[in-house]
Fold these 3 entries.
Entry 1:
Amino acid sequence: MTDDRRNPLRDAHTDIETSHEVPDTPQTRAPSYKLAFNDNDFLCREDLRPVRLQLELLKPELLMDEYGVDGTVVLFGGARIPRPEAKDQARTQTLADLSKYYDEAREFARLMTLKDRETDRHDYVVCTGGGPGVMEAGNLGARDAGGESIGLNIVLPHEQAPNEYVSPDLCFNFHYFAIRKMHFLMRAKAVTVFPGGFGTLDELFEALTLIQTGRMARVPFLLFGESFWRSIINWEALSEAGTISAEDLDLFRFVETAAEAVEAIETWEGAGTTRDAIPGR
């Protein structure tokens, strides 16, 4: 992070270093004496949750601003989808069959990164959850094109590290799911959703709900693998029941290949517009 101080006062880093050199006394050893912003026990108190929420929102925001990320292409999808060469080790035949979307995610990310590099702006930076499966494929595809990509990791009960293809300077770790979700969508110029499980479905429906209710502008919203999505969700039944409107089914589109997805993004109608009313209400 750059040092943008615009005042002559002592900076925080200097005072942290100085505080480590004070004489060792009962007073200086007391927790109360620690600088508040350098006291992990204090920052992790339950009362400080609002501050931690703010910090998790602010840190990635500042670093992406410094890098010049103006827009992102979000890839949601299952962590369990294997590489095609490893599909014989998949836990189910369905996962083995879905391995083709690893390659499609990789190629899609490659094509969008090439598109991003056509100008001086960073409008189509690939952004994933930083994990394995489809996420890994997205970050790998961006690297194939010689570009950078974002990984929004989250601390889980089982130890995990970001996949090796996330750009280190754009690799973030979160404690709060809610703040991570905000960063997925704050810069999104397109959202793509590959087959996945609970996490993917959660991200899919939250993003669609924001667009449906006018809380987020319309962006190209693409679901890879029509047969998968129709097998697990009866979209028309929701419309026929009246729990969503027929117009809501136009908020997204099914695609099968990376090339088809790129074309859909380039020809998407209504991008940037925001609903001022919810059809059917």
Note: The longest helix spans residues 49-67.
Entry 2:
Amino acid sequence: MSWKFAGIIFKKNYKTAYPELLKQLDVKYSQSAEGFTFADAISRENQATALGQVNGNTLLLHHFLPYDCSYEPGAEGRLDELLMPLSSESDIMNYIVDDVSGTYCFSLFSDGKRIRRWAAEPGKIWCNEGNPVDQETSSVSKNAPPDIFSMSEDEAHLFAVWEAFAGIPFQKLVQDDAPLFHFFL
């Protein structure tokens, strides 16, 4: 399967403050709906911003917003500037998964600053700033059935960090039919 989605994980429960969080991130919307699964939220057909709660974390899924983080060494993007102050309240992970191009990126923010930035494309790691976190590994998650969720080394690297940060294996969340997400259009 080929994944293409992006998002932000907040180590904070924003469920009662979704509108305020979206305003802080400069995401505009005119209506909302609830009752969507994680698979619905990461679907290529979803053009909304999805917000949901998993293990006490707030997951924001949006196909374009995470691209406003910079993955150029030493540079900051518009979203970096918004996430740094928010990370004073809780740790944050921004990420991009693009199996189509073979591009995988993540940034970790804590205590008002970016502490880690990593980005890879086929055959090349083009950004590797900050100290690697303990969860960074090049092995595929042992929970993944290899015939369904086979991963490249770079994808496995990103998902090892993602799973440790989110507190749940990606594969388990994809297969979960629970309506955990709200859509904001």
Note: The first helix runs from residue 18 to 24.
Entry 3:
Amino acid sequence: MINVGLYYRVKEGHEKEFEEIFKKVVETLKLANVGFIDGKLYKNVDNPREYMIYSEWKDLDSFRKFMLSREFKNTTDYGKQIIEGRPYHRIFQEINA
């Protein structure tokens, strides 16, 4: 399993819209059987326009395939309207010690 943190800064006034889109994307990914396990949305307590999406994936290959998919492209194309700056992500692998 891998975990991915996706970091976004939302344009002012689009916070609720971003949160609703997140819910829809998570529901869609869970039904799509693409290796997505779960996702949670976090808001920065010091800056409520900054978000982190914490997602769990079956493996790195599943996440990479999603990043190349038409669905991801459609989501990011729409996101350009409500996202400020360039989002980024970090990938972490669970260590079983």
Note: The radius of gyration is 13 Å.
